Amino acid sequence: MTFLTIFALGIAALIAAPYLAHRLRRQRAEQHPFAPTRLVPPTPPKARRRARLEDRSLFAIRAASVLALALLGASPLVKCSRLALSRSGTSVAIAIVLDDSMSMRVVDGSGRTRFQRAQEGAREILGALRDGDAAAIVLAGSPARVGLAATTDISAARAALDGITESDRATDLDGSIAIARTLVSELPQIDRRVVVLSDLADGKPDAPALGEGAALPVWVAMPELRAPADDCGVLAADRTGPRARVRFACSTPQAAASREVQIKDGDRVIAHTPLPQTQMGEATLTVGPEDMRDETRELVAVLTGKDAIASDDRATVVVEAGPAALAVVGDRTEEAVATGGAPVIEQALAALHVDMAVRPIPQVPDRREDTAPFAAIIVDDPPGFTPEQRHALSAFVESGGVLLVALGRRAAAAPLGANFEPLLAHAVGWDSSPSSGVDLASGASFFGEAASSLSDLAPKGRAKLAEQDVSSYEPLLKWSDGAPLIGRRSRGRGDVWVSTLPFSVEASDFALRPGFLALLDAFVSEAKQRATPRRGDVGTPWAFAGARQVEAQGPSGTITATRDDGTLRIVPVLAGAYRVSIDGNKELRVAAPLAREIDMRPRAVAEGATSSALGGGVAIVDVSWMVALGLLGLVAAELLVRAWASARGASGASAGTGAGTSSESKAS
């Protein structure tokens, strides 16, 4: 507000003038006692009441007139910032890139977030469109998405804009601008452009300037969104034993000054330590043993103090679990003698350089909790499974695990009480193989060129399955006589793979062929796809392959999974804890913000992207004519009130004169 505006509004202080005038008018004259007045009966002071009514009405009108006069003097000096497109007289097609990422949650001095201000700017742009103009909306939160395809129905665009809400996603400016260009580049309007409403904090401050060399004009509007801001956020919080590790990121080292990291159990602080004054780091806290005995208790890591974004100052502490591993069960003694080193399966996995830890275990786990660290289990020629092992493996597969069982001579000689239910309903046989190779056509789609290496395996024998078991598995690779070599079957959320040839080099040279590596590679890929960590990035979908019903309770309430390509998925758009129900089984998962979203440094903007030829943000709003009309109305109201008061006073005086004459006649 300028000095002239303040001076013009200062006219309102003159409202004291009518107040003083009315106060002076209402001063009472000095009263002196006069004895004869006691003989006259008192009459109601009607004239005094009329004066009071007239005074109050006139005072209110005159005070309002002074205020209107002050507004009239200040209105030409008041300016309102409003986004408006610059057009060349033709119809316009625009694609609005609206940033709905976490950095847009920064609150400004007015108490509004950057997203709310950008959304209001988008409404102003849509309000400036005319008949024949087209608009599209693209959301810049990662991954970039189409909020509304190009349309000439501006009311539909406004409705779509009102339905967009904030999220904790990362920022994808390049992807969103590319999508925006695609939406409007083929429209018939001659004037086509992209409007970016963002703080440009995408974690790439050194990337090429936005709008540089663009095929379509890019207007980066609302520079006020790029104001500096200090923020710190919790990226991850893990606990193992008595220790809790909290990873954090800050926009500047100064943002961490005088702040603490606390571990809370409800409202009770059970551990705290100063927050290291750095942009990215880790704080380690030691928690008492009595607070760590029960790993099912939900603890929360909290940053004290206030910063630009409050939603990233807390995170659920997750029980630390390393990356999902692959378990290998086999006879290491026989394999070591045959190969002169590690078992052939372990050597093959090492050759593939799989990014999963390979852990040899002596036998199949017989407890469900023992399978928790694994995403996949390979069992080579087991002598059947005990009831406990069958129960553990069944629960492992149904919860999303992948199991590969190679059947051999020992599988056919399972001891009493050991079998392969529910993987196989009938006993397994072992006999010589009538064919020495595979049907290349059956494995071409799955194994590719590697299937040709299995044309002459010359096995010493192979497992035989009952017809009912064969029909329950999808054949991935067949023997040349049509019997299955590799079969796959879905069970619950997981998969069971069965091989009718063991992996031992004494049974065949299957494990020495490139086709065996292709089999392990496909198996590991399937395991990694189904293994979902307890903590993931915001905006990255959680897939639940094989699940029939999935629901989640998140920070925004109940979330129902959507089906995509036959798989149920949930997209966590807000950071925090999600209690997921998968076919009735409860899980706790956490969506964590990305560190680059806390980097508030804006990206550079090309000079042409801020040109006034694309649009402007300041317009003078003249409301003086409205104030002048109001002032004239107040003057007219004052005249009417005065005329009404005068007429009422005259009628009262005439009535009083008539009454006096009647009294005198009666007295005479």
What would you say about this model in short?
Helices cover 29% and strands 26% of the residues. It is of the alpha/beta class. It folds into five domains: 3-29 and 44-77 and 624-658; 81-227 and 601-620, von Willebrand factor, type A domain (Rossmann fold); 232-319, Immunoglobulin-like (Sandwich), CATH 2.60.40; 325-511, Class I glutamine amidotransferase (GATase) domain (Rossmann fold, 3-Layer(aba) Sandwich); 535-596, Immunoglobulins (Immunoglobulin-like), CATH 2.60.40.
Order of strands, main sheet, comes to 16-15-17-18-23-22-21
Number of domains: 5
Could you state the oligomeric state of the chains shown?
A: single chain
Please write the CATH class name of the largest domain: Alpha Beta
Helix content: 25-40%
What is the end-to-end distance? 76 Å
Evaluate the radius of gyration. Answer: 41 Å
Regions with little confidence, pLDDT below 50 for 5+ residues: 47-54, 659-668
What is the β-strand count? 32
Gross CATH architecture of the largest domain: 3-Layer(aba) Sandwich
CATH-assigned homologous superfamily of the largest domain: Class I glutamine amidotransferase (GATase) domain
Instruction: Examine the coordinates and then state which fold CATH places here, giving the name of the CATH topology of the largest domain.
Output: Rossmann fold
Please summarize the sheet with the most strands: 7 strands, mixed
Which structural class is indicated by helix and strand composition?
A: alpha/beta
- The averaged pLDDT comes out at 83
Number of helices: 15
Q: What characteristic shape results from the CA principal axes? A: elongated
- Tell me what portion of residues adopts beta-strand conformation: 25-35%
